[in-house]
Structure formats: structure tokens, C-alpha cells
């Protein structure tokens, strides 16, 4: 019989734009040691390890094998799962299935990236088809700008709406000691920052970061012995349906819509806006904070901006989004999705300290990447049925 | 753990250079083959795992190149980077987690578009080892020397592995490099990295393999007799070559032990009827057979010379021709699983072993066999 699975510990490095004080294995180890301490476990208690990053950022092949001195996987099973920007959420989903299958009781999941060693846009560009798409693809920001333009044209949103999201996440980051960028900005500052790709200003987008995150998952046989309030995984899912840039419906994130409706249906979530208490959204730029919560089913299409302006997604609001400061404040790419998962877990476990949202029964964490792909996890305080 | 089975396999022919096919074309052919084999349509597939490597594919997020051709559109999907046996391990876990009744697993590589030495050089530590210029072949040559020095295995015995597997490949229509060779041919071939001659090394080939894993309920509805997954195990050794006793494979011993334990096998040398092992280099077949406990430490060479690992022998090893017969890098282990399925079903044609009720498939990640994955497959539930 399949087992129920919970997160029983999380750990993050202190994220910075450049961590010359550590090599990759040491960076990974920093997160692993923190997660083990959080769970009160030792490496000998871990049955298997899952690791993920994007090869071409650090230029290291067979990262699962290379990482064992830092990950602690020496003489243990280790497997690498990687799907681009979605990697961090994808590996968390991997950890869930490994434990749920009964193959392993306790699994350590690690996402990491040392972006300071990379040419990020150069590497991302090679994701696309060498004949049809690569020559016209100018990195992640241009694709996102196309989405924002399409959405603005369709629903009449403005660049002020996007900037409001950026103001929110950058303010939230002040409460998170692990965030890379911790500086409050005013709306006018966002609009006055350099234009990167219309309508995206510098302060609308994420940085690139050196950092790692580790999450420990355990089966129902041991989860409650390790942790008084574990974070139960209620559902996981994803859609990676597109491979070519021209496939997407720009202005709508179809993968989010398909994934969220599948997970919510399975979990019996009928009114996500009321039933979900906090969202850690993989939101690489501000406009996604408007568009993608519509696709998630939180508000109707075209109503995202109004919801944001009402303050509903701010700390203290009806449904806080990105209490951690989100991706705009910190983005070690292979770890970014797993940080969302860890932050959502901390909210459910009541361990989010200065960024804790009160009374979290359900939380959602997501991953974004590839060619308009979404991964998603539903977290809950109650043990699933 | 619940039970699961393999109910469909599809393989492209392994070739030196599939100039007419993209990654997606190869995946499409293998997936269509697996679906036809299982008597299923893509609608019967609940989720998909692709297996690829960004370095070998020269493409970041390399899974993007094969997702749609693998039928993953609007399905749950993930990607394992590593040998296909590891991708299949995750596919098995997703089947047993209760989330999905069927999982399609694919693995592909186009060695013809790759520079093996540069790609495997990138697996070495960038600070200490990479600048030495080492690659997979030189790392494995160190290991071959260490193994030969400790066990007394001879260059002739290594060559005999090559003769056997290239000969078996002649019987396998999917193989890339079937050849009728003598031990002298192997020993006379160019020395690539002492003690490995050209014919001790596998080629770097193009190919894609797909398998379909099903839970017990769905397996019972399959078109053909399901091949049951009886045991799986994986384990990683130390990273730096200097931290390991290269002449032994401790991680393989441990991976095999957990697979045998899951399968309830106490004496593998008696229970396993056939084995498809990861013979990227000739010495590896001998070394892995010992690590797998299929013969005593240091005795594989002598048993090989007696013909025990021939198709007609007591333990046929790599009847398909193995990696020496065709090595589509990331797909190599998945081909091993598919070939064992063929043997257990009795569908292996000219290279069919007489008895193949229980078979072993094996895959490797990393340099000189750092990380291993072992599969036990069988006819009986």
C-alpha cells in the first residue's frame, strides 16, 4: 500500500549573489546540515538522496556522483532529477513518490545552484530547439515580457500593477533572514528602474543567486515521531506540455491551470481562495504574481491586479503570497522551487518565525520553468485521508 | 512495497549515426514500439519519465527535446538525469506511490553528436582533477589495471569478453557492432589507454529505449505476460577516484544486496538465469559479475574462459551483445532492462537463453562505476 508522506525538516543556506567562501559541495552541505538539525536526524537515518540543479550553470556533469561528499549520499542511493527552472519543485515531487512507494522511509531532497559560476542567459538559451527556436530566443526575460504584454493587451493591466507585486515581495523579504535582496522599494522606484524588456523593469525581476535548500521527507510510519507538526503532502502534479516557444497561449499559463485543477480536485479543494491560507509562488517576475494566481483559480481571469491592490496577498491579508519575499528576492535556480516547498512547509509546521502566517491549514508551493511549465505541491496540517 | 511489472518495451536499432533522426524522432519510434508491444495507446499511459543528460545532448533542460514525442503533453512528467536504470527506478516509485497505474520510461542518447572525452572530462572535479585531462576511458583504464593487479585477471580474459559480446551482437538485429573476432584481434587493436585496447571499449552510439511499468491491477490487463519487478537497489560510492579501492565495487555489492533482499534471493548465483550488465569496457563485465555476487571474487575470468557466460553457458551474460555491441549512453541501462524482458518472455530469437525465468539488469552512473542500479526481473509474480 502506498504511504502518506510528510516533510519533517528543512534547511537553507544564506543566499548571496556570490558565495566565493564555499565550493559546490560545501554549499550543498550547508543546507543538508541545517535540514538534519531541523529534523533532529543524523545522516545515518537517511535512506536515499535526490538532488537537482541545471548542469550548464556550473559545468559539472553527473552531479549526483560529484556531490556525494556534500550531500552525504556516500554508500547510499542517490538519483538526480532535473527539469530546468521547475527542478526544485520537481525534486520535491520526486521525494514524495520515493517515500510514498515504500521504497525508502526517509528521503533527503537537495536543490542547489551556484549561479555566480554561470552565464545564465547563455545556458538557458540552449534549452530551445537548435533549428527553430534557439536563434530567436533571447533568454528568460524576453519570454516573460511577451507574456506580460499579451496579458496587458488582453485585460488592460498596466506596468503599475506589476510594480505593486514587486513592492509586496520586496517588503516581505525584510522578514526573511535567508533572502538575498532585503530592501524595501517604493512603487515609483520600480517604475523608474532600468527597462530590461518592455514592460519589465530591473526591479520587476528576480536576481540570480548562489544557494542551496534541503528538505527531509518521511513516511507516515515515522513522520510524527520525528516532528510534532509535520507538513503533510496532500497532492503533487505538473504539466510540461510545451517544447516550442510558439506552442504557448501567451498571457495565460495553461500548465498552472491544468495542474492546479487536477490537484485541487483530487484533494477536494473546491474554493481555493478560501481554503488555501498561504502560497509560495515561483514568481520570477512581478506580472506573474497577477497572471498565475488567476490560472491557479484563486481569482477570475482579469481580476488578479484588483486582488493584489486590495492588499489581500500582503502579510496580514486574506491570502498572503510569498511571505518569504519570493523569487524576486532570491533565486538560486535549481533550489528556487525547493525553497518555495520548504517555506510552505515551514508555514504549515509553524516554523516560519518572522514571516509566519497565522493558522495555516493548507499551503501551496509551485515551480516554473522550461517552456511555460508548472509543478505544484499542496501542503496540509491535517494528515490526508 | 506493492508489486509492479514491465508490460511493454520498445527499442530503436542502436546505430553509429542516425543522421535522419532527431532526439524526438528516436523517442517517438521507441515509444510507439513500447505501446504496440503492450497493446496500448498513449491514453493508457498515466505519466511519463524521460531520461537524458544535458552534457550528452548539448542542450540545457534536455528533457524538453523529447517530452512531446514521448507523449507527455498534458500528463504528469519528470526527468531523471543519469543512466536509464535510474530513470526506471523513479518510474517504478511513481507507479508504486499509488498516484499512477502506468508509467512510461524513456532514455535516449546520440553519441554521434557528442564528444565523449570532453563530456566525461566534465565529470571530474573542476579544481583538482579536470585539468589533468582525464576522461571516462582513462579513469576506467586505472580501474582495469587495479582490478587486474589484485585479481590476476589477464588481458586475454578481457579480450575474451569482447569476443563473446561482439559475437552475441551479431545475433541481435538491434545491435550496433556485431563482429566475429578472435582474442588476437582484440589484443592487436590499437591501445587506447593501457590496458584497454580499442576493442575493449564500447562504441558511442545513437538510440532510444522505452519501457512501460504497470501496477499489479493494470499489469493483469496487459496484452502479454507481464515481466515482474522482483527487486531493485541502487548505491553510490565515493566521488574522488583516490578515495576508493578502484579494484572493488563496494557500492555495487550493496546495491545488489538490497535488490536480492527485496526479491527474496539468498543465493543469486543459483537463482539468476541470465544477466545483462553494464560492460562499457571489457573488464567491467568481469568486475561487475563479481560485485553482483554472481561468481566469487577474482573468478570471473576463469569462468568466462570455460564458456560459462556464453549464451549456451550456465549463466549467459549480455546475450544481446551488451554495451560492447552498442552503447547509446544514457539509454544503455534501459536497453539492459528491455533485453532481460525479452529473455524472460522467450522473445530473444537467436540470442535466447535456454532458461531465463529470472534475469538481472544493471546500470551505472558516474566515473568507473561510482553509482550502480540493479534490477531483478522474473516470470513469476
Describe it.
The complex is a heterodimer of chains A (385) and B (381). Chain A has 385 residues and is α/β, with parallel strands linked by helices. Chain A contains 16 helices and 11 strands. In chain A, helix 5 packs across helix 16. The radius of gyration of chain A is 19 Å and the shape is globular. The longest helix of chain B is centred in the first third of the chain and has 16 residues, at 23-38. Chain B has a domain at 4-115 and 204-219: Thiolase/Chalcone synthase (Peroxisomal Thiolase, Chain A, domain 1), CATH 3.40.47. The model of chain B has no long low-confidence stretch (mean pLDDT 97). Classes of the chains: A alpha/beta (385), B alpha/beta (381). Chains A and B meet through helix 3, strand 3, helix 5 and strand 8 of A and strand 3, helix 3, strand 8 and helix 9 of B.
Class from secondary-structure proportions of chain B: alpha/beta
Quick one: CATH superfamily of the largest domain in chain A?
Thiolase/Chalcone synthase
Q: What would CATH call the architecture of the domain at 4-115 and 204-219 in chain B?
A: 3-Layer(aba) Sandwich
Strands across the major sheet of chain A, in which order? Answer: 3-2-4-7-1-8-11-10-9
Assembly type:
heterodimer
Shape of chain A: globular
Q: Which descriptors would you attach to this protein?
A:
heterodimer; A: 385 residues; alpha/beta; Peroxisomal Thiolase, Chain A, domain 1; two-stranded antiparallel sheet; 37% helix; B: 381 residues; 9-stranded mixed beta sheet; globular
Q: In a nutshell, what does this entry contain?
A:
Chain A is built from 16 helices and 11 strands.
Amino acid at each position: 500500500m502506498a504511504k502518506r508522506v510528510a516533510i519533517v525538516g528543512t534547511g537553507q543556506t544564506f543566499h548571496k549573489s556570490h558565495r566565493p567562501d564555499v565550493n559546490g559541495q560545501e554549499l550543498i552541505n550547508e543546507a543538508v546540515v541545517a535540514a538534519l538539525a531541523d529534523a533532529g536526524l543524523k545522516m545515518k537515518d537517511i535512506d536515499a538522496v535526490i538532488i537537482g540543479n541545471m548542469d550548464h550553470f556550473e559545468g559539472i556533469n553527473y552531479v549526483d556522483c560529484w556531490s556525494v561528499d556534500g550531500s552525504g549520499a556516500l554508500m547510499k542511493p542517490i538519483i538526480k532529477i532535473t527539469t530546468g527552472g521547475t527542478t526544485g519543485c520537481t525534486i520535491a515531487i520526486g521525494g514524495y513518490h520515493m517515500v510514498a512507494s515504500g521504497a525508502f522511509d526517509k528521503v533527503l531532497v537537495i536543490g542547489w545552484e551556484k549561479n555566480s559560476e554561470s552565464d545564465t542567459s547563455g545556458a538557458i538559451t540552449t534549452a530551445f530547439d537548435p533549428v527553430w527556436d534557439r536563434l530567436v530566443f533571447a533568454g528568460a526575460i524576453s519570454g516573460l515580457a511577451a507574456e506580460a504584454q499579451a496579458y496587458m493587451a488582453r485585460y488592460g493591466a498596466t506596468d503599475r500593477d506589476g510594480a505593486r507585486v514587486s513592492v509586496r515581495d520586496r517588503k516581505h523579504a525584510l522578514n526573511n533572514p535567508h533572502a538575498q535582496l532585503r530592501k524595501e522599494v517604493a512603487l515609483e522606484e520600480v517604475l523608474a528602474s532600468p527597462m530590461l524588456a518592455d514592460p519589465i523593469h530591473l526591479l520587476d525581476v528576480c536576481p540570480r543567486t548562489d544557494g542551496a535548500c534541503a528538505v527531509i521527507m518521511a513516511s507516515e510510519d515515522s513522520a510524527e515521531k520525528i516532528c510534532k507538526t509535520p507538513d503533510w503532502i496532500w497532492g503533487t502534479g505538473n504539466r510540461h506540455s510545451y517544447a516550442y516557444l510558439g506552442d504557448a497561449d501567451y498571457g495565460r499559463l495553461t500548465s498552472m491551470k491544468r495542474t492546479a485543477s487536477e490537484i485541487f480536485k483530487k484533494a477536494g479543494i473546491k474554493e481555493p481562495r478560501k481554503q488555501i491560507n498561504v502560497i509560495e509562488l515561483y514568481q520570477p517576475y512581478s506580472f506573474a504574481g497577477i497572471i498565475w494566481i488567476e490560472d491557479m483559480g484563486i481569482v477570475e481571469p482579469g481580476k488578479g491586479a484588483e486582488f493584489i491592490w486590495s492588499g489581500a496577498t500582503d502579510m496580514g491579508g486574506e491570502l498572503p503570497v510569498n511571505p518569504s519575499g519570493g523569487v524576486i528576492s532570491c533565486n538560486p535556480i535549481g533550489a528556487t522551487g525547493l525553497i518555495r516547498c520548504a517555506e510552505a512547509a515551514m508555514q504549515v509546521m509553524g516554523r516560519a518565525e518572522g514571516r509566519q502566517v497565522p493558522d495555516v491549514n493548507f499551503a501551496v508551493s509551485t515551480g516554473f520553468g522550461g517552456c511555460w511549465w508548472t509543478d505544484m505541491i499542496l501542503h496540509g496540517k491535517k494528515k490526508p485521508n | 512495497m506493492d508489486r509492479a511489472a514491465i508490460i511493454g518495451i520498445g527499442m530503436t536499432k542502436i546505430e553509429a549515426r542516425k543522421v535522419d533522426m532527431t532526439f524526438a524522432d528516436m523517442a517517438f519510434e521507441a515509444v510507439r514500439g513500447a505501446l504496440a508491444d503492450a497493446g496500448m495507446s498513449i491514453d493508457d499511459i498515466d505519466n511519463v519519465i524521460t531520461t537524458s543528460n544535458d552534457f550528452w545532448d548539448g542542450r540545457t533542460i534536455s528533457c524538453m527535446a523529447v517530452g512531446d514525442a514521448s507523449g507527455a503533453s498534458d500528463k504528469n512528467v519528470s526527468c531523471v538525469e543519469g543512466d536509464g536504470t535510474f530513470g526506471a527506478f523513479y518510474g517504478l516509485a511513481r507507479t508504486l506511490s499509488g498516484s499512477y497505474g502506468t508509467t512510461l520510461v524513456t532514455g535516449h542518447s546520440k553519441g554521434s553528436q557528442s564528444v565523449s572525452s570532453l563530456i566525461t572530462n566534465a565529470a571530474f572535479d573542476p579544481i583538482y582533477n579536470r585539468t589533468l585531462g582525464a576522461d571516462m576511458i582513462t579513469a576506467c583504464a586505472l580501474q582495469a589495471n587495479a582490478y587486474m593487479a589484485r585479481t590476476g585477471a589477464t588481458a586475454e580474459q578481457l579480450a575474451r569478453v569482447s569476443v563473446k559480446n561482439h559475437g552475441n551482437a551479431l545475433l541481435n538485429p538491434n545491435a550496433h557492432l556485431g563482429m566475429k573476432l578472435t582474442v588476437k584481434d582484440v589484443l592487436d587493436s590499437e591501445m587506447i589507454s593501457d590496458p584497454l585496447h580499442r576493442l575493449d571499449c564500447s562504441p558511442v552510439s545513437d538510440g532510444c529505449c522505452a519501457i512501460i511499468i504497470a501496477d499489479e491491477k493494470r499489469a493483469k490487463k496487459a496484452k502479454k505476460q507481464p515481466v515482474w519487478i522482483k527487486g531493485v537497489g541502487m548505491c553510490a560510492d565515493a566521488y574522488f577516484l583516490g578515495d576508493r579501492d578502484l579494484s572493488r565495487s563496494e557500492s555495487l555489492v550493496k546495491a545488489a544486496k538490497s535488490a536480492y533482499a527485496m526479491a527474496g534471493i539468498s543465493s543469486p548465483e543459483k537463482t539468476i538465469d541470465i544477466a545483462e550488465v553494464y560492460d562499457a569496457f571489457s573488464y567491467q563485465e568481469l568486475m561487475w559479475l563479481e560485485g553482483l555476487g554472481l561468481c566469487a571474487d577474482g573468478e570471473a575470468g576463469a569462468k568466462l574462459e570455460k564458456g560459462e557466460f556464453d549464451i549456451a553457458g550456465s549463466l549467459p551474460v549480455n546475450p544481446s551483445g551488451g554495451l560492447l555491441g552498442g552503447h547509446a549512453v544514457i539509454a544503455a541501462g534501459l536497453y539492459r532492462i528491455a533485453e532481460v524482458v525479452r529473455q524472460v518472455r522467450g522473445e530473444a530469437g537467436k540470442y535466447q537463453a535456454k532458461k531465463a525465468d529470472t534475469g538481472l539488469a544493471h546500470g551505472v552512473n558516474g566515473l568507473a562505476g561510482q553509482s550502480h542500479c540493479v534490477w531483478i526481473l522474473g516470470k513469476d509474480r
